């Protein structure tokens, strides 16, 4: 039986660090795309967006029901986005709501009234 090759832990660590860096880069790009898709990047300045996110985090910790409601609205937003991009040739509308999709997304980004 051949002797076992020693593991190159340094190479494995570098590979994991590279993968983590790629995931962070992808996450940043996706967050930027989300801001653009919801219209928040055009409607709110960066300071307001940061404050909104911080307020949302505080509320999510103190009120899990609000966070679940936001999650459901976000899920519905992404379903509409996927439906509108995948059904380009279909005559069926992506959303049956009378409100524009970007308006719903702005409301979803806004924390619930305290």
TrEMBL record:
Residues 70-83, 101-114 have a biased composition (Basic and acidic residues). InterPro entries: Conjugal_tfr_TraD_a-type. Residues 84-99 have a biased composition (Polar residues). Residues 61-114 are annotated as: Disordered. It comes from the Bacteria. Coiled coil: none annotated. This is Conjugal transfer protein TraD.
């Amino acid at each position: 039986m051949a002797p076992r090759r020693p593991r190159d832990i340094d190479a494995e660590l570098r590979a994991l660090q590279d993968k983590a860096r790629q995931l962070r880069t992808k996450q940043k790009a996706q967050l930027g795309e989300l801001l653009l898709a919801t219209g928040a990047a055009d409607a709110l300045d960066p300071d307001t967006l940061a404050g909104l996110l911080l307020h949302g985090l505080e509320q999510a910790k103190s009120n899990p029901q609000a966070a679940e409601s936001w999650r459901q609205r976000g899920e519905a937003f992404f379903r509409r986005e996927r439906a509108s991009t995948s059904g380009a040739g279909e005559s069926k509308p992506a959303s049956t709501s009378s409100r524009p999709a970007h308006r719903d997304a702005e409301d979803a980004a806004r924390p619930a009234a305290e």
